């Protein structure tokens, strides 16, 4: 199935879309490390990183909506170049020891101009699959492939930042991110496939823009909760590894979870078509609850590795299924906006949960942070079992 997916997308598009989304995974951690080193204040670093996350959370859906209405090429091109400039400006300001307020402003601009390559690549790939006559199974394979690219980018991105910080300076990692944005973001924008997700101009499509089923909002909430699981897990892992005297292991533990998630994401294409997306969603959220519970009781490094690796196996099925359900139920004229909402929800949920669970971990230890992850999993399960998802009775591709 993945051979057909690569044939559909071509050899260049997956490469430029992967490299174009890599800076998103690099900038959050990179900005934290950079500002912490140049200012000597973790509080200042947290404020700058929080501003970056807030900018991306708020502006991401706006960029998606612009892409729906005006086409991806121009929107992604402008956003990629603006993001490269904003990230470079943040680096220069940090190196110049600018005031906290300026760092927050530049962080917010760096977040607000993220070109949303990941969500727009999904939209573009789905459009290519539908235009080629692909059925839901083909679309599911495409979404599994795109989900794996996301997972790998969010494992590789922080690893590159950590390597650059160890060998040179955190500024080097952010300047690399700016270079990738300027080159690969531009290449993604100008790739011929950008025309596949054409903007809609018909009266029917214009009417569609105002209507979203209730289940679409439930899917957005579940992605915020998924992001909360990420943030709480990150805080708990950091707290526990510090308690065990091996703080350097935190990044490796989190990466191990991401690697397992990416591997399972690739295997999602093998799930039989008779198992529908609503059933997969409920099964995935049930797995999140069952597999996250041991986090609260883990108290050793070996146990932590074992628990988070197994938990990682539930993340990709949940993410891929929610993207698949969204593609199925939202109007095609709002697909890019909806995909961007899901990704921004993860970012926002992660930032909020990281702040909350970090405080809990400081006061009550790692189990308190992990309890936030379990609570988010329970809420995800409640949503999946109480939300009815129904596909629209209309073509899923917009009329050119």
User: Which fold does the CATH topology of the largest domain refer to?
Assistant: Growth Hormone, Chain: A
Which range does the strand content fall in? under 5%
CATH superfamily of the largest domain: MFS general substrate transporter like domains
Radius of gyration: 20 Å
Please explain how this structure is put together:
By secondary structure, the protein is mainly α. Helix content is 80%, strand content 0%. The protein is built from 15 helices and no strands. Helix 3 runs antiparallel to helix 14 (335-364), helix 6 runs antiparallel to helix 7 (136-167) and helix 7 packs antiparallel against helix 8. The longest helix is centred in the middle third of the chain and has 32 residues, at 136-167. It starts with a helix and ends in a 14-residue tail after the last helix. The model is unreliable at 393-400 (pLDDT under 50).
Topology:
Blueprint lengths: L1 H8 L2 H28 L2 H29 L1 H24 L4 H13 L4 H15 L4 H32 L2 H21 L12 H6 L5 H30 L5 H19 L9 H16 L8 H29 L5 H30 L1 H21 L14
Which short descriptors sum up this protein?
2 domains; mainly alpha; disordered C terminus; Growth Hormone, Chain: A; 80% helix; single chain; 400 residues
Summarize the structure in short:
With 400 residues, the protein is mainly alpha-helical.
């Amino acid at each position: 199935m993945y051979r057909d997916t690569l044939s559909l997308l071509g050899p260049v598009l997956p490469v430029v879309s992967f490299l174009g989304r890599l800076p998103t995974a690099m900038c959050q951690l990179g900005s934290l490390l950079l500002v912490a080193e140049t200012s000597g204040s973790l509080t200042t670093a947290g404020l700058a990183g929080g501003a970056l996350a807030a900018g991306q959370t708020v502006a991401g859906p706006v960029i998606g909506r612009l892409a729906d209405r005006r086409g991806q090429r121009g929107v992604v091109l402008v956003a990629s170049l603006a993001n490269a400039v904003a990230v470079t400006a943040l680096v220069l300001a940090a190196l110049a020891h600018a005031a906290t307020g300026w760092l927050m402003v530049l962080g917010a601009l760096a977040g607000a101009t993220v070109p949303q390559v990941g969500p727009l690549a999904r939209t573009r790939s789905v459009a290519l699959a539908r235009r080629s006559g692909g059925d839901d199974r083909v679309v599911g394979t495409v979404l599994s492939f795109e989900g794996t690219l996301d997972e790998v980018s969010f494992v590789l991105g922080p690893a590159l930042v950590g390597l650059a910080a160890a060998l040179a300076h955190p500024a080097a990692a952010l300047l690399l991110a700016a270079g990738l944005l300027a080159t690969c973001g531009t290449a993604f924008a100008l790739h011929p496939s950008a025309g596949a997700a054409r903007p809609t101009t018909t009266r029917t499509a214009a009417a569609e823009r105002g209507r979203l089923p209730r289940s679409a909002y439930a899917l957005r909430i579940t992605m915020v909760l998924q992001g909360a699981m990420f943030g709480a897990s990150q805080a708990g892992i950091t707290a526990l590894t510090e308690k065990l005297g091996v703080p350097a292991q935190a990044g490796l533990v989190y990466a191990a979870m991401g690697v397992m998630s990416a591997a399972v994401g690739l295997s999602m294409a093998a799930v039989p078509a008779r198992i529908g997306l609503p059933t997969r969603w409920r099964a995935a959220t049930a797995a999140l609850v069952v597999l996250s519970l041991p986090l609260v009781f883990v108290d050793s490094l070996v146990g932590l590795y074992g628990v988070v690796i197994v938990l990682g196996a539930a993340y990709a099925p949940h993410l891929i299924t929610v993207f698949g359900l969204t593609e199925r139920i939202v109007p095609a004229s709002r697909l890019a906006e909806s995909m961007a909402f899901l990704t921004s929800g993860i970012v926002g949920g992660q930032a909020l949960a990281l702040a909350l669970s970090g405080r809990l971990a400081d006061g009550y230890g790692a189990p308190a942070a992990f309890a936030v992850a379990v609570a988010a999993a329970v809420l995800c399960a409640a949503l999946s079992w109480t939300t009815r998802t129904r596909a629209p009775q209309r073509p899923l591709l917009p009329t050119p």
